[in-house]
Give the backbone structure.
Amino acid sequence: MRPLGYITYFRNHRKRVLSVIFTIAICVMIIGQIDTIVSNVIQTQERDYEKYRYFTLVNIPEDESGIINDIHENEYTERIIRVSSFWLMLNTIGSQAEFRCFFISDRDMEYMLESMGIEIISGSLPEPGENQILINESLARAFSITTGDYLDYNNKKHNVKGLSKLYQVQGIMKGDNVTAFIGAKEPSQFLNNEYLVTFKPNNLEIVNDFLKSFDIDIWGMDENISFMENTFKNYNIVINLIIILTSILLSIVLGNLSYVHYLSRRQEFGILKAIGFNKK
């Protein structure tokens, strides 16, 4: 007597085989989904710190105007620009895209777009003081945002955290630098005593080392790399734990299914053996 073939076994025990396949598929999908979410978060963070190749953000107290003059007079500094920034977060299923938005004058906005090599592919520059925002292409594509849409915290279509009022998307920028700009008209919009320090070509490290000589808050390339390394380390720990737990759960489920299946077929195995069925 020939041993029972896989196809014949599947036909006779379809439900049991499908339950095992379904369990394995669910575990693989969970691991794959987690990996996709984490990859998206990491890619967003990488795109976010790309802009710090063009400038460094510093916070200078009002009573330290001498520092502003020293930075401006440094031979490697190209320009120091007054801004005010805040974080925006766009929610997706299982993750958040976080990026920095800048209040900036229209003249300085044009300069920053030119120096960063960013083009506007839809719409135009936001008008100063008109509650208009300029966002990045990748964010617009990911969240189906088009020019003319409105963004605020309570918008059900575009769930944005960080905005204090309603803003209309005036333009969309091309490129991978995840950032946004709002046209500032009144000095009162510059609330955080923040400045963008741009540098002459190939002088990023020199200017950043110079800025670190002052007792001020700095957020530049080095700080972003350090932040990302710590973030990736935490993500790797979480991913490894989830994969281990999922593997253990999968092993337990498959083991239980196999054991229950064996117990349910012990009598059948005895009958098959008695009539001459062999393992070969």
Q: What stands out?
A: The radius of gyration is 29 Å. The first strand starts at residue 55 and ends at 59.
